[in-house]
């Protein structure tokens, strides 16, 4: 049990301390954006009393997706690159559709 505890401690030291560099900090910032988008969505839904996806969700998604894509490119991880690139496309497309709809609404109200 002591050996397992030491092995886990050594692993955590290596992962979170020895490997800490600007790229890891960028990855953490990207992860912060992804976490923030869900917090924003949750708060908006609680306030509305129903499931809501605010525009800020898509901005945080784009920020997190772009940063994670940069991080994945640096790490040369093809699975991570493909996943983030596709996700980034979806986030940008959703934001485009929302903005396009917003531009049409004032014109149709006249």
Automatic annotation (TrEMBL):
It holds the Pfam family LAB_N. InterPro entries: Lipid_A_biosynth_N, UCP028440_lipidA_biosyn. GO terms for cellular component: membrane. Keywords: Membrane, Transmembrane, Transmembrane helix. Residues 26-97 form the Lipid A biosynthesis N-terminal domain. GO terms for molecular function: lipid-A-disaccharide synthase activity. The keyword Transmembrane helix applies. Gene3D superfamilies: 1.20.1280.290. The chain crosses the membrane at residues 20-40, 52-74, 80-99. GO terms for biological process: lipid A biosynthetic process. It comes from the Bacteria. This is Lipid A biosynthesis N-terminal domain-containing protein. It comes from Pseudorhodoplanes sinuspersici.
């Amino acid at each position: 049990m002591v050996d397992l505890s030491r092995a886990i401690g050594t692993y955590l030291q290596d992962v979170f301390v020895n490997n800490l560099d600007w790229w890891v900090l960028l990855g953490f910032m990207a992860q912060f954006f992804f976490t923030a988008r869900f917090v924003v969505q949750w708060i908006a839904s609680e306030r509305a009393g129903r499931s809501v996806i605010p525009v800020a969700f898509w901005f945080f998604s784009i920020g997190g997706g772009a940063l994670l894509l940069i991080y994945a490119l640096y790490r040369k991880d093809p699975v991570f690159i493909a996943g983030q690139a596709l996700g980034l496309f979806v986030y940008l497309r959703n934001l485009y559709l929302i903005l396009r709809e917003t531009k049409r609404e004032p014109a149709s109200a006249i």
